Amino acid sequence: MKGDVLAGIVVALALIPEAIAFSIIAGVDPMVGLYASFCIAVIIAFVGGRPGMISAATGAMALLMVPLVKDHGLNYLLAATILTGVIQLVFGFLKIAKLMKFIPRAVMVGFVNALAILIFMAQVPHFWGISTMTYVFVAITLIIVYVVPLFFKAIPAPLIAIILLTAVAIFSGFDLRTVGDLGNITQSLPSFFIPDVPFNLETLQIIFPYSLALAIVGLLESLLTASIVDDMTDTGSHKNREARGQGIANIVTGFFGGMAGCAMIGQSVINVKSGGRGRLSTLIAGVFLMFLILVLGDLVVQIPMPVLVGIMIMVSIGTFDWSSFAYLRKAPKSDAAVMLVTVIIVVATHDLSKGVIAGVILSAIFFVAKISKIEVRKRQQNKQLIFDVEGQLFFASVESFVDNFDFSVSDTDIIIDFSNSHVWDDSAVGAIDKVVIKYRENQNRVTIKGLNSSSKKIVDKLAVYNDANAKLSAH
Question: By CB neighbour count within 10 A (0-12 exposed, 13-18 middle, 19+ buried), where does 473 fall?
């Protein structure tokens, strides 16, 4: 319990500048992001499927909202947030998490590294080229978060850094940028209201494309982050419950004036590294965030940005998979390429979904290329000409399959043996048809043998050659 409470406090302090920054990206009032972070964190603590994971307003989601807010305003964003939650709830009931098995490890590594780079890049404007004292505070923060845990672990080092250096900044009068410089904080609780939009088909047509994109990106980031936290804590999670939980959280958030959100890998890493493991840490993060705004708002706005920057730099360093440099040398070239493409696209577009989707597609292409190699060996046995087929026969290998046959023979018994092969699709059956028909044109007698049960089933159903001049047999 102690670890969860202290970790939640650290996360809440780090959430404030990010929530404000993401609100600015989306083009809405800072309180929209803060209310979202409060509502989502509190709700997901009860209904989520991954204990210890932090969900709130995120940059990936904020980027998708920009055109909607610009063209239609805040109320349409809140309506889209509610619809996003409904879609995610439906995805959760449809057990969308089972699709996670199609994301290769190379894509996961690329996703994590890209997020680490993005977290670091997001900090650069807050400390680069500002002042010497800014660099000093960032450096001291990094020293505290890395050195203090070697001697003292009762209180999370990031919390010590925030309290100590905020006090130093306030009493010393150093010229440093603070949380308050990002935007105004209103010391009030969120209130329930229904978005002021027309309830008609036109509104649905406007918000549905945005809601669908937000739902997909939110679930993708949440489920990938859940997998990462699973690995960090060596524990399991309920991915479909997490999908449903994200949906419930976004529905409620939309009715309380918050923007759509999802899991945050940076904050989740802070939570885990600060000792947070249970649902209590997520609940404390949300509750303490609102406590900070309502009760300590005047102090919160004085927290120096360099301190929070130092903590987030620590997060980016801890998030990056440094073993991936060795991975690039040792892994197959195709896997290394997939990882690099995922990183490059995510960093270039700031869109996690594009990078992950590109990585999955590229992995699929490489996989198809690997298994599309098929061999057809010819041998003579008595008066029979036998072709032994070895490999997977499907759309990508049919051309090579056909090219391996010698169609110059005539009036011969031809046997095509599929004992070491598997027929997968209509293209494969079409290729078999083509080979058989060409041999029959030269008065050859053709027998297909060695088909396993599933291959025989698809050939029986789709082949056109199976008549008196061509025999089909199974094992």
Answer: exposed
Instruction: Please report, for the chain, how many H helices and E strands are present, in that order.
Output: 19, 7
Residue written as tokens 């936290």?
A: 229
416 CB neighbour count, 10 Å cutoff: 23
Nearest of 427, 430, 475 to residue 448 by alpha carbon = 475
Return d(Cα 87, Cα 217) in angstroms, integer. 12
Q: Are residues 265 and 384 in the same domain?
A: no
Verify that 187 and 281 share a domain, yes or no: yes
Q: Is residue 436 part of a domain?
A: yes
**pLDDT 10s digit of each residue in the chain, 475 long?**
888 998 898 888 878 877 877 787 777 888 888 899 999 999 999 998 899 899 998 877 887 888 888 888 899 999 999 999 999 999 999 888 787 777 788 888 888 788 788 878 878 888 888 888 889 999 998 998 888 888 877 777 887 888 888 889 888 878 888 877 777 777 788 889 899 899 899 999 999 988 988 898 888 888 888 888 888 888 888 988 999 999 999 999 999 999 999 998 878 888 888 888 889 999 999 999 898 888 877 787 888 888 888 887 887 887 788 888 888 888 888 888 989 998 999 888 877 778 888 888 998 888 888 888 888 888 888 778 889 999 889 888 888 888 888 888 888 888 888 889 999 888 999 888 888 888 888 888 888 888 888 888 888 888 776 544 444 444 3
Is 298 a member of any domain? yes
Q: Is the pTM of this model over 0.85?
A: no
Domain that holds residue 463: 375-474
Please indicate, yes or no, whether residues 253 and 380 belong to a single structural domain of this protein.
no
In the chain, the number of structural domains is: 2
Strands 445-451 and 470-474: parallel
Asked whether residue 173 falls in the same domain as residue 299, the answer is yes
Asked if 471 contacts 446 with a C-beta cutoff of 8 angstroms, the reply is yes
- Are 153 and 90 members of one domain? yes
Q: Are residues 31 and 136 in the same domain?
A: yes
Note whether 416 and 389 are within 8 A (CB): yes
